[in-house]
Specification:
single chain, about 180 residues, mainly beta, 8-stranded antiparallel beta barrel, 10 strands
Length: about 180
């Protein structure tokens, strides 16, 4: 058992001693695409499930090594519902092996939603629990979000999307 813990400690230290691919001062542009299922719980109409599609361009800046802040503008569509949100976000890059990172991310924002001919404001929150990013060159990275938890609230409607491999997010970044 001690050998196992020693091996894990050595691997952890080796990953942390690797070259920082996301260094303080790095700036990037990019975005993500997502597709999945949406479960909506409405007090009067009951629950329903719908197909969900989204696209979100993003800009960001590394304020410290492996720690970034960003701003995304997302457009989501789900069966007669259009949603536009502004999502400030933070993420931390945990090295796994050279050029591969585990990147948990939290985004909280707001925007507008149009559904059945009516438009109103909304609050939204997103948590990427199992997100990986690979950076094959110093200027380009792509990633995948495998487990996402999204929450939106408008009027009396709470919308929760929880995807484990069923609602993946694919992202890309170009670094300056």
């Amino acid at each position: 058992m001690k050998k196992f813990f020693s091996l894990c400690l050595c691997l952890f230290l080796a990953c942390n001693l690797s070259v920082n691919a996301q260094s303080k001062g790095d700036f990037y542009v990019g975005g993500n695409l997502k597709f999945g299922l949406t479960a909506v719980d409405m007090p009067v109409l009951g629950s329903e499930t719908a197909t969900h599609f989204g696209i979100a361009p993003e800009v960001g800046y590394f304020v410290a090594d492996k720690f970034k802040i960003g701003l995304g503008i997302a457009y989501d569509y789900s069966s007669e519902t259009h949603q536009m949100t502004f999502m400030p976000n933070i993420a931390y890059y945990v090295p796994i092996v050279k050029n591969l990172y585990y990147v948990p991310e939290l985004a909280i924002g707001g925007g507008f939603i149009a559904s059945h001919g009516e438009s109103e404001g909304l609050f939204t929150m997103s948590l990427k629990l199992a997100s990986l990013e690979y950076r094959p060159t110093s200027k380009f990275a792509f990633g995948v979000g495998l487990v996402n938890l999204d929450y939106s609230r408008y009027s009396e409607i709470n919308q929760v999307n929880f995807g484990i491999l069923s609602s993946p997010t694919v992202s890309f970044k170009y670094f300056f």
